[in-house]
Amino acid sequence: MAIKNKKLNLKDKYQYLTRDMAWDPSYQKKEDIFPDEQFEGIKISDWSQWEDPFRLTMDAYWKYQAEKEKKLYAIFDAFAQNNGHQNISDARYVNALKLFLSGVSPLEYAAFQGYARVGRQFSGAGARVACQMQAIDELRHSQTQQHAMSHYNKHFNGLHDAAHMHDRVWFLSVPKSFFDDARSAGPFEFLTAISFSFEYVLTNLLFVPFMSGAAYNGDMATVTFGFSAQSDEARHMTLGLEVIKFILEQHEDNVPIVQRWIDKWFWRGFRLLSLVGMMMDYMLPNKVMSWAEAWEVYYEQNGGALFKDLERYGIRPPKYQDIANDAKHHVSHQAWSTFYQYGQATNFHTWMPTGEEMAWLSEKYPDTFDKYYRPRFEHWAKEHAEGRRFYNNTLPQLCQVCQIPTIFTEKDDPGQLSHRQIVHEGERYHFCSDGCCDIFRHEPEKYVQAWLPVHQIYQGNCDGGDVETVVAKYYHINIGEDNFEYIGSPEHQRWLAIKGKAPEPAPERSGQDAA
Amino acid sequence: MSQLVFIAFQDNDNARYLVDAIAADNPEAEVQHQPAMIRIQAEKRLVINRETMEEVLGREWDVQEMLIDVISIGGNVDEDDDHFILQWN
């Protein structure tokens, strides 16, 4: 391979990009140029120790990204031209995409903004280059996801105004507040939150088994953007791990700060992923693996190996990991129960699992499904069959930190709701767990400012005092089209027509007042 | 406790060669076929060698070409012109 030797090798190319093109300022002080680098208490003595193991340079970056894009858009075209939406397993599946487009794709955009910002904050050139590439990646993800789903928007409801909904709809404040929390933190906390805790430890759970599930449900467009995005994530994950190791190696005083961030962001990420658990167990008609199985592989096994590796720095696994591991048997059922009850206020449809699907849930959750969830679901299915589809008209108590309704149960007592409260400066605040309560206690001045959707509705800040007005006017959800029960919905009827089947009777809406 | 590294590829034509090369150089590795993807895991260490890939493919191959087909990885990365290594310490 004599030809290869004429070119610079990877290490040299990377060295030129990240060191030799940077310079030390001479007429401004470094701390004036990078004012955010100090205040979190992280001590960096030698930025030259920063290494990107992929050693990706801009020329290689553009080359490979261009190739990924060409492949991806060829598939989008083929999918649209061949009416690929008609070949999915069942139209119920599309409801997972509605949640994805309004809940996840805006996070990609938020990540783009976040990396563009922190990329400006580091005095080390290697870190700036890595953040710049990741910012461009995240923007690409946001765009490709919207392009992929634009085809579905032509044929299904609820996909028409995702960015608007992300800023306003009650359950979308869960993902939104997660990223707002990270983006309003300092640059090192942002990297620990997003690059390490989210990208490295938790995003596999979203992009790997769920996307594999998309493929298994005939959704060629989604699996392709999912895996194309995830191919960038492999780089981001590597960056996430290097970031943590770099910070920890720089100074021992960094260890307790980083440990607290890991505890916080693991817990916040775990809570956020409740939505994904529900998507996997309830919204994929053809099942790949259960949420509990995915958690075992991608958190317990992979995360276990990771935290064992980090032991040498004095880092332990995240606090409350035991609670999260136990909750894998419950969270998807508890989340789906909640969305089922509040289906009048969602941009997607909900339904009760079929008999066959409940049998699968019993098999995958032998210790919990039949005991705690099946009786409730069978009751709701019976109510629906008798013309009383259940909707809950009482707005739920939200957790001040994760913003999820306080729906989760105690670790050793699944019959007991987990609820914590504290009084801070004369005001009472409510939490879903010790994990969220700890986060508040550490930075109450941040979380007292939380924009909690239920509070905002009751305070009259959402264009109306009743659910129907809020849903229609403030959320832009089309009542009777986007929301309510799936069975008998306009979308269900359209799907039956596509498949050449007879229409179902229209849904009953007694028992709720949002219609 | 077991400490597994892993790599997942899109189940496509490029990945077939990668999987063959990995299987040849990492006889202990376990190859899992899942919808649309192939996941390979191994205890502590997994290596992709450029030389093996070039033999399998019958052409020159740049280690960074794998960026197009990879979905996810677990483990510390060590990459240079000749190999891509995943490992836990």
Automatic annotation (TrEMBL), chain A:
| Record's protein name | Phenol 2-monooxygenase P3 subunit
Segments spanning the bilayer are: none
Keyword Nucleus applies: no
> Which keywords label this protein?
Monooxygenase, Oxidoreductase
Q: Name one GO molecular function term.
A: monooxygenase activity
* Biological source species: Marinobacter mobilis
Q: Where is the YHS domain?
A: 413-451
Q: Which CDD domains does the record associate with it?
A: AAMH_A
Organism domain of life: Bacteria
- On whether Ribonucleoprotein is a keyword of this UniProt record, the answer is no
Recorded hits in Gene3D superfamilies, A to Z, give:
Ribonucleotide Reductase, subunit A
Q: Which InterPro entries match?
A: Ferritin-like_SF (IPR009078), Phenol_Hydrox (IPR003430), RNR-like (IPR012348), YHS_dom (IPR007029)
TrEMBL record, chain B:
Q: Provide the alphabetized UniProt keywords.
A: Monooxygenase, Oxidoreductase
Q: Which Pfam families match?
A: MmoB_DmpM
Q: Which residues form a coiled coil?
A: none
MF GO annotations:
monooxygenase activity
| Keyword Transferase in annotation | no
Known InterPro entries for this protein?
MOase_MmoB_DmpM, mOase_MmoB_DmpM_sf
Highest taxon of the lineage: Bacteria
Q: Which family does it belong to?
A: Belongs to the TmoD/XamoD family.
Q: What is this protein called?
A: Phenol 2-monooxygenase P2 subunit
Q: Which organism is it from?
A: Marinobacter mobilis
